[in-house]
Design goal:
The chain is α+β, with helices and mostly antiparallel strands. It is built from 6 helices and 19 strands. The strands form 6 sheets. Strands 1, 2, 3, 4, 5 and 6 form a 6-stranded antiparallel beta sheet that branches.
């Protein structure tokens, strides 16, 4: 089991940030209102009684108010201009990217005096359920308002930036006011604050659409399970410094036996639907992943079974077994890990030579056809004598 520090080792995936946010907006910073702490201190000095001092102290720490202009709401809706309050501004706020567009991940905060939606021409007026009130940065880890910083383990904004473009794409203005090449860094080096991975605005919109889904309970549960997997997978790599290594199993069978020889019988599953299995790798076509279920009723239990697809000559074979669990089906998530296999086919004891037939190969061969296959090899050597097979006589 991983150490306790394992969880939270990596920055939260974009999918989680989307899921915990009521509002995602492409915006531009307009102003930063830094609080005057000295003024409150003077009020305390002039206070007449303890109740007034207590009231003044309840306002500490004074938040810095960031005012943004909304360019496009990607999730939810809101006013043309809105505010976000953050604490500890002098130490935590990263202003390196203030002159860039940014995607902000927000939750609504109903407060008196909050910015109201604009008039008929406003972005908010385009949607009847526009939220009223100020915003706070949405936290991916259940914390309170997060800070405005790129290096945070819980990023709450993605500044627009230009990534190196090998395809020679040019920058410019898109029809919706966004740059023609709008790249947002979804990953960055927290030590240097420099982006390391980018997504375009259409790619981010597609991810938002996937997280939102169709609103059904099955889909929402699927997305929740998928996001948990993404968080766990990223934390593993961040904590151990490398992706998780797939499990590895080995099996030994007798060579030359027919198709359907069992390599592995997986765990028993019970579900309202079968989940998908598939094999990859250089020798994957020599094996099959099937559902082993006599009554064809998945609710009564079934197994994923890996079997041979044809007789195998003596030798060593490798493939990877992949599967998607039932709860990943509604949102089409392929996050389940893989299991690598090494299968060794061993000739029967005492065999001097294998006359091996491949029933899948189709073509011309001595005494062979599509049913009986092709003899491999055609020339053999046994007990010091060399011979070439000229013909075969098939018997029932």
């Amino acid at each position: 089991m991983p150490a306790p520090e394992f969880y939270g080792a990596a920055t939260s995936p974009l999918e989680l940030r989307i899921d915990v946010s009521e509002v995602i907006v492409r915006a531009k910073l307009l102003s930063v209102e830094v609080p005057d702490q000295q003024d409150l201190l003077m009020q305390i000095v002039d206070a007449k009684d303890d109740s007034e001092i207590e009231r003044i102290l309840s306002q500490f720490p004074l938040p810095t108010i960031l005012t943004f202009k909304a360019l496009e709401y990607l999730k939810g809706s809101g006013p043309d201009e809105f505010t976000v309050a953050i604490e500890d501004p002098n130490e935590e706020r990263d202003d390196t990217w203030d002159n860039q567009e940014a995607l902000l991940f927000l939750n609504t905060v109903a407060e008196p005096g909050a910015t109201e939606p604009g008039g008929s021409d406003s972005v908010a007026a385009q949607n009847a359920d526009s939220p009223a009130g100020a915003y706070a940065f949405a936290s991916s880890y259940g914390l309170n308002n997060d800070v405005y910083t790129i290096e945070s383990v819980n990023p709450v904004w993605l500044p627009a930036a230009s990534a190196p473009q090998a395809d020679g794409a040019s920058s410019g203005s898109g029809g919706d006011g966004a740059p023609a090449v709008a790249n947002f860094p979804t990953e960055w080096d927290r030590d240097t604050g420099q982006p390391t991975d980018f997504m375009t605005l259409p790619e981010i919109k597609k991810t938002i659409s996937w997280v939102k889904g169709d609103g059904t309970q099955e889909y929402d549960y699927c997305v929740g399970q998928a996001i948990n997997y993404l968080v766990w997978d990223r934390d593993w790599e961040a904590f151990y410094g490398a992706p998780m290594t797939p499990g590895h199993h080995e099996a030994e069978i007798t060579s030359g036996r027919g198709a359907g020889i069992i390599i592995d019988e997986g765990s028993e599953f019970s579900s309202s639907q079968y989940h998908r299995f598939w094999l990859t790798g250089e020798d994957a076509e020599l094996f099959q992943a099937i559902h082993a279920d006599d009554d064809k009723d998945p609710s009564t239990g079934y197994r994923e079974t890996v079997v041979t697809a044809r007789p195998l000559p003596a030798g060593q074979y490798g493939f990877s077994d992949h599967g998607v669990l039932p709860w990943y089906e509604p949102c089409d998530f392929n996050g389940e890990g893989q299991l690598d296999w090494t299968v060794t086919a061993v000739a029967p004891a005492g065999a001097l030579h294998e006359a091996f037939f491949d029933p899948v190969a189709i073509g011309q061969g001595v005494g062979a056809n599509a049913t009986n296959g092709v003899l491999k090899p055609m020339a053999i050597t046994a007990q010091g004598y060399a011979a070439t097979v000229k013909s075969l006589v098939w018997q029932d």
